[in-house]
Structure formats: C-alpha cells, structure tokens
Amino acid sequence: LGPAHHNISAVFFLTGIPGQEDVYLWISIPLCLMYVISILGNSVILFIIKTNPSLHEPMYIFLSMLAVTDLGLSISTIPTILGIYLFNSREISLDACFAQLFFIHSLSFIESAVLLSMAFDRFIAIHDPLRYASILTPPRIAKMGLVCVLRGVALAFPLPFLVKRFQYCRANVLSHSYCLHQEVMKMACSDITVNSIYGFFIIVSTVGLDSLLILLSYVMILKTVLSITSHEECLRSLSTCISHVCAVLVFYMPVIGLSVIHRFGKSFPPLLQILLGYVYLLVPPLMNPIVYSVKSKHLRARIIRVFVK
Q: For residues 256-287, b (16+ Cβ closer than 10 Å) or e, as one string?
C-alpha cells in the first residue's frame, strides 16, 4: 500500500438489520419507544431520588449513578441507531465513530463498576445492617462513584487513539448500528495485535473481574442469609437483592455473549450478533428503571405521587 492509499474511505458504514430495509420505518417505532421509555424512566428516577431527602441513602445513590450511566448510553447511541432506521443514513465519519466508541465503552465499564458497588452495598446491608450507615457514608459513596468513573474513562481513553493510527482501506461496513472497538479494529489494513490484546485486557479487567466479584459477593450474601434463623427474615433479606440480580443479568449476559461472538464469531449466525448488539445497548437502560421501581416500595410510591398529582 503506497501513501496514496491512506484512508481511502473517510467514513464507516453502519448496518441495521440486513434484508429488512423495507420495514425499517416499522422497526424504528419500537426503537424510538425504547429510547423514550429509557430516557424518561431514568430521568424520573433521578428526579425523584434528588427531590426526596428520604431516598438519600446508599442504595438509591448507587441507583442514581446507574441511571446517569444508562442515560449516557442511550444518548450516545440514539443518533446512529435512529439515523439508520428513520433516515437511512448509514455513513459515520471516522472521528464521530471513534468518539462514539469511546463513550459506549467507557459508559459500559462505568455501569459494570456501579453494579459491583451495588453488590457491595447489598452485602453490607445484609451482613452488617447496624453498621451499614457508618460504613457507606456519603463521602465514601462519592469516592466509590469517582473510582467507577475514573476507571471506566482511563481504560477506554486509549481506544480512539489506538484505532485512529490505522489505515482503513476496506469497504468499511460495520456489523452494528453503532461503533465498537472490536468491530472497528477489524476494518484496519494494519496489524491489530496491540488492539486485540488491549481489548481483551480491558474486558477481562472490567466485565470479567466485576462479574466475578459480584458472584463472590452473592455467595457471601447467601452464606449470611442462610445463617439467619427465621424463614421470613431470610426471604426479606433476599428480596432486597432481586432488582440488583435482574440488573446484573440484563447487563452482563449480552456483554459476555457479544464478546464471545466477536472473538469466535465465524460459527454464529450474523443476525444473532446484530440482535445481541441491540439487547446490550437498549435493554439495560430500559429495564433498570422498570425493575427498580417495581421492586422498591419507596420509589414506586414516589413515582405514583408525581404522576397522580
């Protein structure tokens, strides 16, 4: 490749659902609805937690961190996903793509860390209820939140620079309707070993490590709960974890599924990868507010009060 071939195409092409172009407008309706519900749901949760001092306790502060992260994920993917289905605009400039990739990855890592903090919160609440408030003080929660954000941003920060240094000379068609590092790097006509190793390292050190630690905290929670003598008490303690368990499953299953498909993708049908890609970005921001407001009496009562007024 001579210098003349450097970055033949200055754009990437995003993919909707191949073969379904004639029903894109219909597909855009549930997508728009999901976005509206995600953004409204997370905003309402933030508003209610902020305006009700009685909800200024650790569990709800972590929940508001989750809501902010989910809002970020929704907002950073709306333009490209709806662009494809509503306006059939599939082009995205390299820089816009690298920026989107940074936001998606950093916010996913932050969400993973927040879910881990929430597992820690549940463990303290069940294991040491009397010292709960003195262990999870507001300054300590703020520090935990800061660590979540810094780790996510620091790990995702090199990604745009790692993909920017490549030459892109293929037909740059990505298989999702948004940019992911593991997809973009495969479009390069250069050696992607460094990106591959770094990508693997960050997935293991965020999603891998966090999910293991969450599992561990639930093993400890179960151990604590099973040592509680009364059956009702036991169930009551576990029921405070249900919404968190749902949030964890909704977030980690598609992430791990997508990572596996991107690494060993030849044998999987392409549609599976596309659908998992949507589940990964659209479902957690949609489900978290619903799951938490259904499961939390305090939150539900406040939400109803806001809308019934």
A: bbbbebbeeeeeeeeeebbebbbbbbbbbbbb
Q: What total of structural domains would you count in the chain?
A: 1
Question: pLDDT tens digits for 248-272?
Answer: 999 999 988 888 887 776 778 888 8
Neighbours of 221 (CB within 10 A): 22
Query: What domain range includes position 298?
Result: 9-308
Q: What is the CATH number of the domain that holds 150?
A: 1.20.1070.10
Whole-angstrom CA distances from 88 to 79, 135, 281, 297 are: 12, 52, 20, 43
The token pair at 142 is: 């703020």
**Which residues fall within 8 angstroms of residue 222, CB to CB, at 6 or more apart?**
none
Helix, strand, coil fractions of the chain, as percent rounded to 5: 80, 5, 15
Task: Say how far apart CA 36 and CA 24 lie, in whole Å.
Answer: 18
Whether pTM exceeds 0.85: yes
Please indicate, yes or no, if residue 279 is contained in any of the structural domains: yes
pLDDT for 170-225, tens place per residue? 778 998 999 999 889 989 988 999 999 999 999 999 999 999 999 999 999 999 98
CA proximity to 247, closest of 77, 59, 98, 86: 59
Tell me the two tokens of residue 280. Answer: 């990964």
11 - beta bridge partners? 93
- Do residues 274 and 29 make contact, with C-beta atoms less than 8 angstroms apart? no
Longest dimension (CA), the chain: 76
Residue 3 is assigned to a structural domain of this protein: no
2 in any annotated domain: no
Phi, then psi, of 173 in degrees rounded to 5: -100, 115
Whether residue 42 is contained in a domain is answered as yes
